[in-house]
Write a structure and sequence with these properties.
alpha+beta, 3 helices, elongated
């Protein structure tokens, strides 16, 4: 039996096993496959996906997933700030607003 879980961040439904032991097995299999990131079929993408699956049932992996989300959000925020053009020179008000 497959259970639908809605991850609002992904804005899509991901089908995962309904039984806890199946989710645990799937999560650890994904993490184990992520360790072999240098092989053609398996890759690093499996590691965070395995952590997301294990986070459903485990408080430890839930905290780890949240820390990864916060780290990724801060990293994206910093990169967006760097890409934004900066104003050159001193900022002043238009003449109509002075005085």
């Amino acid at each position: 039996m497959i259970k639908d879980i809605d991850f609002s961040n992904l804005k899509s439904k991901i089908k995962i096993p309904a039984k806890k032991w199946q989710r645990t097995l799937l999560g650890w299999a994904l993490i184990f496959g992520g360790i072999f990131w240098f092989l053609p079929v398996v890759g690093f993408w499996m590691l965070p996906l395995g952590i997301m699956v294990l986070a459903i049932d485990s408080a430890f992996f839930r905290r780890l997933r949240r820390k990864m989300e916060v780290w990724w959000g801060r990293k994206r925020q910093k990169s967006r700030r760097k890409d934004r053009p900066r104003a050159k020179g001193k900022r002043t008000l238009p003449r109509s607003f002075r005085d």
